Amino acid sequence: MADVFPSLDDAEQKVKKLRICVTGATGYLAGHIIKRLLAAGHTVHGTARHPASSPSTAHLHQMEGAAHRLKLFKADLLLPGAFDAAVAGCDVVIHTASPYQLDVPKGKEDELMIRPAIFGTENVLSAVNKAPSVTRVVLTASTVSVWGDPHERGKGHTFTEDDWNCTATPTAFPYFYSKTAAEKRAYAMREEAGGRWELCSINPGAIWGPPTGSRTDGESVGQMIDLLSGAFWPWSPPLGVGVVDVRDAARAHCLAAVLPRASGRYLINSESTYVLPTAAKILSKAYPKRWLPPLKPPLFPLLAFGPMMGLPTNITRATFRKKPLVCVAKAAKELGMTQYISVQQSVLDMARDMLAKGMIPAWKMPIAAPVLVLDVLIVVGLLWGLATLFRSVAQVAA
């Protein structure tokens, strides 16, 4: 399998060697961040709920430099003081850990999503406030804290770092609300600390690209599995999002961690597209024998089977056939993010990597199968009814 790890920027290579804490170390994005930091010569303190679990941490220990410069700490977002030991003595903290769940049971929004996101951020930043060595924090935010509906500020509006999500509430788009509230709380805590440490937040959209490990619970990793195994056949939802490669997202975090001029929010985006239909089209050419979904469903059936795919109806309505306009000038100017890996390369690299690792089964039952069966039964019923009606009319006429 070819090495798809991009080279480091000059700024990453020339900076003095730091001690950097990365929360959520076993995560999809964090793996790439840690790989870049180790490649640049930094010492990394990674946190995980189960750091001794070899399946989830094995890929981290195999990274170049990990034997001498990677130390993993046990930490839980909801356990007060859990991050104190990992953060102590560090120069920078990169906080990637956050609960993720689009489809939250009604009435459980605060318990499962909002409080964990806000308290987790407070918990990590409380550890930062106890560690005088820390001078910079980089927060993994999201475009969902910038917008919920790509047209919420008007169809032609181009989103910038000055925009905040104005449609999310605790009961409508609870995940979007949790990310928005957690990011705002981080900036409030920086002010409460008197600005002793600098804060940058990186706001990517949908993150695709090859994983460093073999975990299958990441959002885009799961979607790639469903695409290539036929689970999405025969259609994929045309929901508009900004897309960025995981390697570019990691690069932005690492640059924000070491560049003195970096400050505040940074939108990063390779392309705004309907990511699943776009990925399906790219993959169908590379893997013609796979059951890739050729169709984009209309809104009504998508509202019916979307929840089976983990897509709440409100998110479907908000993003259906709407591509966001995104300005990434600030990241280009201050972080040097002037070029991005294309969506096509991201999708193909991800597919090759996951297939090589044996992460994708040959076939899965299509998620839409119950809807397709129901549609067939309805059509058969209608045809049978029409045939019966015609026979009755013919008998009367005779």
Question: Which H/E pattern describes the elements?
Answer: HEHEHHEHEHEEHEEHEHEEHHHEHHH
The first-level CATH class name: Alpha Beta
- Which percent bin holds the helix content? 40-55%
Provide the spatial order of strands within the biggest beta sheet: 3-2-1-4-5-7-10
Q: What structural category arises from helix and sheet content?
A: alpha/beta
Task: Count all strands and give the number.
Answer: 12
* Rounded average pLDDT: 93
CATH superfamily: NAD(P)-binding Rossmann-like Domain
- CATH topology (level 3) name: Rossmann fold
So what's the overall shape? globular
Return the CATH architecture: 3-Layer(aba) Sandwich
Quick recap:
This protein has helices at residues 10-14, 28-39, 54-61, 66-69, 84-87, 109-130, 174-192, 219-229, 246-258, 275-286, 299-305, 313-319, 329-335, 343-356, 369-397; strands at residues 19-23, 43-48, 70-74, 92-95, 136-140, 158-159, 198-203, 206-208, 240-245, 264-267, 271-274, 325-326. 44% of the residues lie in helices and 13% in strands.
SSE topology:
Elements lengths: L9 H5 L4 E5 L4 H12 L3 E6 L5 H8 L4 H4 E5 L9 H4 L4 E4 L13 H22 L5 E5 L17 E2 L14 H19 L5 E6 L2 E3 L10 H11 L10 E6 H13 L5 E4 L3 E4 H12 L12 H7 L7 H7 L5 E2 L2 H7 L7 H14 L12 H29 L1
Parallel strand pairs: 1-2, 1-4, 2-3, 4-5, 5-7, 6-12, 7-10, 8-9
Antiparallel strand pairs: 9-11
Helix pairs in contact: 2-9, 6-7, 8-10, 8-14, 10-14
Question: Can you walk me through this structure?
Answer:
- The chain has helices spanning about 10-15, 30-40, 55-60, 65-70, 85, 110-130, 175-190, 220-230, 245-260, 275-285, 300-305, 315-320, 330-335, 345-355, 370-395; strands at about 20-25, 45-50, 70-75, 90-95, 135-140, 160, 200-205, 205-210, 240-245, 265, 270-275, 325.
- The chain is built from 15 helices and twelve strands.
- It is globular.
- Helix 8 (about 220-230) crosses helix 10 and helix 8 (about 220-230) packs across helix 14 (about 345-355).
- Helix 6 (about 110-130) links the parallel strand 4 (about 90-95) and strand 5.
- It has a single domain (about 10-380), classed as Rossmann fold, CATH 3.40.50.
- The longest helix is centred in the last third of the chain and has 29 residues, at about 370-395.
